[in-house]
Amino acid sequence: MERKWWKEAVVYQIYPRSFKDSNGDGIGDLRGIISKLDYLKELGIDVVWLSPVYKSPNDDNGYDISDYRAIMDEFGTMADWEEMIEEMHKRGIKLVMDLVVNHTSDEHPWFIESRQSKDNPYRDYYIWRSGKNGREPNNWESHFSGSAWEYDETTGEYYLHLFSKKQPDLNWENPRVRQEVYEMMKFWLDKGVDGFRMDVINMISKVPELPDGDVQPGKKYAWGGRYFMNGPRVHEFLQEMHREVLSKYDVMTVGETPGVTPAEGILYTAPERKELNMVFQFEHVDLDSGAGGKWDIHPWTLADLKKTMTKWQKELEGKGWNSLYLNNHDQPRAVSRFGDDGTFRVESAKMLATFLHMMQGTPYIYQGEELGMTNVRFPSIDDYRDIETLNMYKERMENGEDPQAILEKIYYKGRDNARTPMQWDDSEHAGFTTGTPWIQVNPNYKEINAKAAMEDPNSVFHYYKKLIQLRKAHDVIVYGAYELILEDDPLIYAYTRTLGKETLVVITNFSSETPVFRLPNEITYSTKQLLISNYDVDEREELHEIQLRPWEARVYKLK
Ligand code: NOJ
Known about the structure:
This protein is an alpha/beta fold. The chain has helices at residues 5-8, 30-35, 37-43, 78-90, 109-114, 175-190, 225-228, 234-244, 262-269, 302-316, 334-337, 345-357, 387-398, 403-413, 416-419, 450-455, 460-473, 475-479; strands at 11-14, 47-50, 54-55, 67-71, 94-99, 128-129, 149-152, 157-160, 195-198, 252-256, 278-280, 289-290, 293-297, 323-324, 362-366, 481-485, 492-499, 502-509, 516-518, 528-533, 545-547, 553-558. The chain binds 1-deoxynojirimycin (NOJ).
């Protein structure tokens, strides 16, 4: 397997609005980020993925961009951005920017032009259609509830928006759109950025006829995913982007690709296809969603998690490359979802980190994950900010659903769980701001915060730091082949990684119980070394049979 710096790296995601405020307006900003770079250096990460910092009216917190070449006023200036990247590079940290080009803001000058008239030169930058039988052009539902089409009076046509109505979809069939995107990418690459995370990049090519989706009983709109995800020209577009832009720079790319299978994942990431380096797949974070989608919550099972992770590990092996994540700004906090955010918060946060970082792929840490930050339960819908959550709440209230039941869904799955401010210390608003934060801090900040974690050698923070260091010291962690062991164990997730004569054995207990781990007979060794564990372990202890403690994790290296 070819060695690459981005395979050996650990990425840290910053959601700038919630990271660190430097000027007291309650909103995180670039100077706030600069002030925390030493913290990131201490953690040891190699790359920052920065969620969008471009000019935006913030209908979807920056994922609605009105100027791709300018910085959002609330975040600072281009001079601040330049200082930020320089300070990152000085510390050996690379910067990956978010590239949001499936859609723009409706306040982007292209869209302002586009809606003026049917013959405006920018008309064809977006996807306009006339209505059908007095209704929308098709029955697709937006990701943020309601129709994916918005009627525009000026020209009497509808435009497509897979997300909010302030996020019109760009028309990638138009070569001028593609050229604009490529030029804009070069603008940032020439300023020194080290790569892109590409927002919903598998949605840029739609089936041109835009056929109706299958309607579910009792629902007004339909899921049209199969007509806009992994569409007919997506690979052609990405290969063109690679040829025209990416091939000219040594950068990393990760595509956000909801709904991809491993076979599609390989199409996007196989090096000889010259598209992307890796994708974010969603199968493991969809395990607790039912047929009705994200808000149709069903408990996940360890058996399913094993199946899904193993499938991705094995199918991409030697063909593509995985990215490894349990958290990001769209997902609830992993320790609340897959671990125990009560009694065993610290143990289970470390266990989840071990489980993830020892797999094959590039690991991502989302801000606060390294502290074991948890979900939040705000008492009122008025405390929530996320457009997806608020639209869903409104729609369900209109359908007469019980408000408390809707709030329970939000507590479990809402995106604001990830967006409460980063908990820096135990002072007011967790040291995030001296003003009033745009969204409230999680009340548990007095106990869970970076300052306390840095002072405590047994903290989740120090555990992450060690995991990152191990990755630098043992090639088998990066390049070893994965094999699931104890497949049928209901509580233990264990696997091996093998490279040449070295084998890692990764043992993780996904429960508060104390199951016994038994090493399969096929695994033999002459020496063993404990690389990391989240409890004290007597190094002389035999590996053949171990009674695990709640949420215990251990990694051994065998030779
Ligand atoms: C995926 C992003 O991660 C999410 O935050 C955003 O709302 C949508 N794409 C639309 O840009």
